[in-house]
Amino acid sequence: MNATSLKIPPELKSRVQNAARNANLSPHAFMVDAIARETERAERGQQFERDADEAERHASDTNRVYDAAEAFAHVLAAIRDEPTERPKARAWHPSA
Asked: How confident is the model at residue 55 (pLDDT cuts 50, 70, 90)?
């Protein structure tokens, strides 16, 4: 593992030390874990944006969408092994 210097304000350093102690971790391990979790969250957000862009392109290209409430009701009914009809696609009208 490569060493990296991280300068943090004294109050944050104290908070990290307390939180690490409560989690039975060293401050170093606590910070590495926090940075890893935040990096993962940021990457998921970026992937969400890419997926949303792709979904919008697909809706624009096909001009077909499904009502979210109808789609969720269909999925829930299918999970419960209840009879259900697939929602009907309708024309897409972009919002902005």
From this structure: very high
Beta bridge partners of 36: none
Q: Which of 23, 30, 24 is nearest to 8 (CA)?
A: 30
Using CA atoms, how far apart are residues 69 and 75, in angstroms rounded to an integer?
10
All structural domains of the chain with their residue ranges: 10-62, 63-96
Q: Would the pTM of this model clear 0.85, i.e. be above it?
A: no
Contact 27, 17 (CB under 8 A): yes
Q: How far is CA 50 from CA 38, 44, 55, 59, 77, in A?
A: 19, 10, 9, 14, 30
CA dihedral angle for residue 49, residue 52, residue 57, residue 60, rounded to 10 degrees: -140
